[in-house]
Amino acid sequence: MATGWRENWRERGADLADGFGQMAARLAGSTLRLGVTGLRRSGKTVFLTSLLDNLLLQGRLPFLDAVAQGRFIGARLLPQSPDSRIPRFDYEGHRAALTGPEPAWPSPTSALSEIRIALRYRPDGLVRRRLSGVATLNLEILDYPGEWLLDLPMLGQDFAVWSAMTLDLCRTQPRRGLAGPWLAALEATDPAGPGDESAARHLAGLYTDFLLAARTHDVGLSLLQPGRFLEPGDMAGAPVLTFCPLPGAAPHAAGSLGALMAARFEGYKEKVVRRFFRDHFARIDRQIVLVDLLSALNAGAPGIADLQRSLTTTLESFRHGRTGWLDWLGGARVDKVLFAATKADHVAAPQHEALAGLLDELLAERRRQMQFDGAAMGTLALASVKCTDSVITRHQGRDLACVQGILRGRKDETVIFPGELPASLLGIGDDVADRFGFAEFRPRPGLGRDGRGLPNIRLDQALQFLIGDRLA
Q: What pLDDT is recorded for position 218?
């Protein structure tokens, strides 16, 4: 009881510090922490690379007011933050991958990194312009494996609740087929038996194999926990990653396998998940949520349902709403959230509005709650790096809106008709192969050679929503 009391007060103290720090930073107007939120393959690394590139080169940002009005002076990457434990985001390496002789998408993120960039501008208001002449906004941005984000809902669960939820999911396809060896081992395991280390490692290994298989399945399953089992980073082999869901009611007797697994689950929450959230996400000011909706549509109803469940439960972990004079007492809050459907260039331009509308539908329930809490919200279809063109092709007397680009695994340009986006997510069945198939494209040769920043779709509109008011 005393330990829990002390922990609650420590968390309350941290909330007060976060909230006060956020309020002070906003009053000073000098720093903004941008949270780039997204699951695996949503395009966080490409988004961040393109954002930095276009700000540094003052490139393709016509709808960012500070640029359009000639008030944007320039940008410069800042030295790494005082926390030397976090590597710097490899902007130069990722840009080189996109713009090299054989352009390729950056490798998936497997560890934490961050970067800071200073934006110099002339204030728009007469009073501020006379007082300061030139102002600076420092952006702090984090990159991380999307798998880690899915651990946040675990903070509100105990081992029994998490186990029951995970096992329920594993009783439905396609998880049931992929989890066969692990489920069979569970059948032969008594959670009330001795807490044997070798048994724990064996079960955790089988469970990890299931998660890895689920990550690469055609359905594109999203809700795969714990995320560190898939991307352990510097924690590979640590005992805190040696547990798995178990059947049966808790609590388990001391010394039992169930008690061992439950203790490691709690240790994972406190030492890994809570620390990650506290150090990096609990203090963000603005948030962009990147969503690969096209891949989920390719998977049909199961993919859509899994993506919706993953995003909804994850977003519940954040504090959304406007910050008033006394709101810092409750901790830092996110006052603006932009939802972005990524890879918009994989469908023809006339369908971009429909893509944004489907994303609104997918997150309608969570959006209503965030709106009630007072957060400003926006939605758009985005391509961080544009790698196709929209073209019209005549086929059997009908004009089709197609896309032209280099398909993954090919060398030459191809024109394809991926199908038309549905008017609604309602009624999408399991079999969608005959309705649409959104393909993957490679970056085109010659990206960035004109020195104007990486080509994109609506990156400037995203920046205007997220930081435009802070550059006014």
A: 78
